[in-house]
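STRUCTURE:
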């Protein structure tokens, strides 16, 4: 029964994640979805600001808290290890869906780009950002990152997945966190920036910088020691201002499970 449950649970959690991720594209860009960052229930701006900040804070606490190794060690006393990652993915996706649902618009314009060519350029940059996010997950192990591999192995009666090796791969030679770089590009590249969109972009940027630098990187150093410190010295964290000077290693899935 647990094998069947693990398969169904992991698959369902991944389906919810996939919906939440695809909806995020429309939510930020304001296209193809009924509810996005610039529409919704009209609310006085002080209350709208408080609600939006509360939703963003809830996601930050849930996402970073559940990704920490200490929490995982405690959590797997309650939740079976094969579905721990799927549970994390499901919880994060549900909090995102709550954010989409309850987000209050702050429509005051901050900037508007009128030139058609510039508008298309910004839309293209945003699309490139989303593609960078998705491609970067496959450069490590997309299905393991989002819990499918663990739940499917449990369904087949296999043991835990072997630890992923510490290897160099494509975009991870350019920046240490290409997934987060993709999010930043997608959030900021817009021809029409409202106050609500600016709040979303500022808050998520601050969260990414703090979570990556002070939480994820700390966990990676604890896991890989001097190997990761050397990687930090050679490869920039988010902005590809310089190229690696020597060949080395970048963290793959074993490290990425630390998450943010």
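SEQUENCE:
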């Amino acid at each position: 029964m647990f094998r069947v449950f693990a398969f169904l649970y992991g698959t369902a959690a991944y389906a919810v994640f996939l919906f939440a991720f695809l909806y995020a594209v429309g939510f930020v860009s304001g296209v193809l979805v009924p509810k996005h960052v610039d529409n919704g229930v009209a609310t006085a701006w002080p209350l709208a600001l408080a609600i939006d900040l509360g939703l963003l804070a809830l996601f930050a606490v849930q996402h970073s808290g559940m990704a920490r190794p200490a929490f995982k060690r405690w959590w797997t006393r309650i939740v079976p290890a094969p579905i721990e990652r799927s549970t994390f993915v499901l919880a994060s996706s549900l909090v995102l869906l709550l954010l989409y649902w309850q987000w209050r618009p702050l429509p005051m314009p901050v900037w508007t780009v009128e030139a058609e060519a510039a508008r298309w350029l910004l839309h293209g940059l945003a699309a490139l950002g989303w593609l960078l996010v998705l491609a970067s997950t496959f450069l490590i192990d997309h299905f393991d990152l989002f819990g499918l591999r663990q739940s499917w192995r449990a369904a087949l009666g296999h043991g835990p997945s072997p630890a992923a090796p510490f290897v160099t791969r494509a975009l991870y030679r350019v920046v240490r966190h290409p997934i987060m770089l993709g999010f930043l590009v997608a959030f900021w590249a817009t021809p029409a920036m409202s106050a609500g969109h600016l709040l979303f972009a500022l808050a998520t940027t601050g969260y990414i910088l703090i979570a990556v630098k002070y939480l994820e990187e700390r966990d990676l150093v604890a896991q890989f020691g001097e190997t990761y410190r050397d990687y930090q010295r050679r490869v920039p964290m988010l902005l590809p201002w310089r190229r690696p000077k020597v060949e080395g290693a970048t963290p793959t899935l074993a490290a990425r499970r630390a998450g943010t």
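REMARK: Strands lie at 109-112, 192-194.
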